[in-house]
C-alpha cells in the first residue's frame, strides 16, 4: 500500500495544477521498519529536476511525507532517500538526514473553499511563524 501511495504522488498533476514532485522522478523502493518508519527511495530526478527554493522543497518533501502518514496513520516518520543514499538537503533547505513527521501546515483542507491567492512563503514578522516546528530549514 505504501508503494501505491507514493506512486500516486509521482503522477503528473492535472492541468492547471502543477506537481510538487519534479517530472521523471520514479520510486526505486519503499520499505517500512519495525519502528513504524518508512524509507522512500526516489530516483535522482527528484533532486536534478528540482526548481529549488525553500517553499518548493517543502512542498516536494511533504507531498510524500503527508501522503504516507495520512493514509498509514501508524507511521511515525518518513525518510526520503535519493538513489539509495541519504541526502542533505534535497535542494538546499530541508534536512532529510532523519525521518520527518506529518505536517499538515502545507496541505489545503479539501473541505475549504478554493484559494484564489497563489501560495507564498510566510513573511517573517511578529506572530508569523516561518515554518512549522517539524520542518528543519537551513
Provide a descriptive summary of the structure in words.
The protein is 22% helix and 14% strand. With 138 residues, it is α+β, with helices and mostly antiparallel strands. It has a single domain, classed as 2-Layer Sandwich (GMP Synthetase, Chain A, domain 3), CATH 3.30.300. A four-stranded mixed β-sheet has the order 1-2-3-4.
Characteristic key phrases:
single chain; 138 residues; alpha+beta; GMP Synthetase, Chain A, domain 3; 4 strands; 22% helix
Q: Strand fraction band?
A: 5-15%
**Sequence of secondary-structure elements:** HEEHHEE
How many runs of DSSP E, i.e. beta strands? 4
Helix content: 10-25%
Largest sheet: 4 strands, mixed
Structural class: alpha+beta
Q: Low-confidence segments, ≥5 residues, pLDDT <50?
A: 120-138
CATH architecture: 2-Layer Sandwich
Spatial separation of the terminal alpha carbons? 32 Å
Mean pLDDT: 81
Q: What is the overall number of helices?
A: 3
Q: Which descriptor suits the 3D outline?
A: globular
Number of domains: 1
CATH class: Alpha Beta
As for the CATH topology, it is GMP Synthetase, Chain A, domain 3
Strand order, main sheet: write it out.
1-2-3-4
Using the CA coordinates, give the radius of gyration: 15 Å
